[in-house]
Amino acid sequence: MIHVQHLLGTGHFRRAAAIANALAAAGHEVEVVSGGMALSHPSTGGARLLQLPAMRASDAGFKSFVDEQGRPIGGDWKARRRDILLACFASFRPDVLITELFPFGRRQLEFELLPLLAAARAQSPRPLLLCSLRDVLVPPHDPEKVARALERAQVYDRVLVHGDPALIDLSASYPAARILGERVVYTGYIAAPPSSDPPGNDGLDEIVVSSGGAAVGGHLLETALAAQALLEPGRRWRLLLGADLPGEIRERLLARRGPLTIVEAARPDFPGLLRRCHVSLSQAGYNTVMDIVQAKARAVLVPFATGSETEQTRRAAALAARGWATVVNETQLDAPRLAAAVGQAAGRARPDTTALRRDGVAETVRLIGTLRAERAV
Predict the structure, then answer these.
(1) Most Cβ neighbours (<10 Å): which of 89, 185, 252, 371?
(2) What's the pTM?
(3) Rg (CA), the chain
């Protein structure tokens, strides 16, 4: 069983779904329990998907949370969702339980995850407990919250970090994780499988601008159009609009379409567009960066940095230190800076990212199989 919650973008669900798909393909019976907003085309392959009553962040600051209708979540709502989750656990009786991000994040889900862990520890035999983490964490400022997360992590058998310490070590963003010692295991990054080539000349020598799956990329997209006017004429720009982009921004962008300005919905062949593009211009979310690295695309990254968010900034800085990307700070984003960054990126050779470990899905499946076999013995 894999518990996952996305609150703003869809990256958490995509990573969990990739793992679930591969586990199912390897012969495991898999249940994905998702607490984020329902996706129109969730891809979990042979794994089952249980959609809990959905919640999301009401804004990019992650200070308050609402249900599907935008209403603040209350005690009754939490109790109902907790009971659905616990009933699923009791029925499924998994011999492996994976919590995505918790206990290092998702403290707002303690109302259901602490009872879930209690049920797991009470089950006989106790399931293997695994935490699934991305490469960068945003630790709380309160030392007591850090200590509580580490205490809860002690009951886990392993903490699976889907990254490569040669690029980013978990302790760089979460120094206290060193306390966990050998419990922390790196799987390599989780990268999407190769996609087919886009039709026709789509993406060929274009500037491809994307804003991920969240609602926070509108400023980047609109600034990109302003930067286009400052650069060489004749090159086509392709703007890909995320599903959650606010309607008024979407309409303004669509009104700017022209022969050299393609504005369209985000596409499943995005990795193929990156393989062909002149420069990729995007934020620095985990999945987007992995698509860029896979494609060996020249990249400009504008990391999302609202409030106390440092995840994307750290990831972008690690790529820039390797010479794999040019970075523009979100707080300094304007058309001249963005145009200059695109020009700088265009002048570089495509990066050689071959050495970066990107076998995270296969290695996660292998590790789970090994750990289950050890417990059986």
Answers:
(1) 89
(2) 0.93
(3) 21
* DSSP line for 229-258: TTS-TT--EEEEE-TTS-HHHHHHHHTT-B
- In the chain, residues under CATH classification 3.40.50.2000 are 2-190+358-376, 207-346
Token pair in block for residue 373: 């076999």
Reported CATH class of domain 2-190+358-376: alpha beta
Give the sheet arrangement for strand 207-210, strand by strand. Answer: 261-265, 237-241, 207-210, 279-282, 299-301, 326-327
pLDDT tens digits along 132-173 = 999 999 888 899 999 999 999 999 999 999 999 999 999 999
Instruction: Pull the structure tokens for residue 229.
Output: 């006017």
Report DSSP letters for 98-116, one per residue: EEESTTSS-GGGHHHHHHH
Mean pLDDT of the chain: 93
- Which of 3, 16, 35 has its CA nearest to residue 103? 3
* Residue 286 Ramachandran class (φ > 0 left, ψ -120 to 50 alpha, else beta): alpha
Dihedral pair phi/psi, residue 172, rounded to 5° = -65, -35
Question: What counts of helices (H) and strands (E) characterise the chain?
Answer: 12, 15
Residue 45 confidence (pLDDT): 84
Helix (H), strand (E) at residue 56: strand 55-57
Taking a C-beta distance cutoff of 8 angstroms, is the pair 236, 309 a contact?
Answer: no
Are 185 and 367 a contacting pair, CB within 8 Å?
yes
State pLDDT tens for residues 274-317. 999 999 999 999 999 999 999 999 999 999 987 778 999 999 99
The residues near 347 (Cβ < 8 Å, ≥ 6 apart) are none
Which residues, other chains included, contact 356 with Cβ-Cβ below 8 Å and sequence gap of 6+? 164, 166, 167, 189, 293
CATH no. of 207-346: 3.40.50.2000
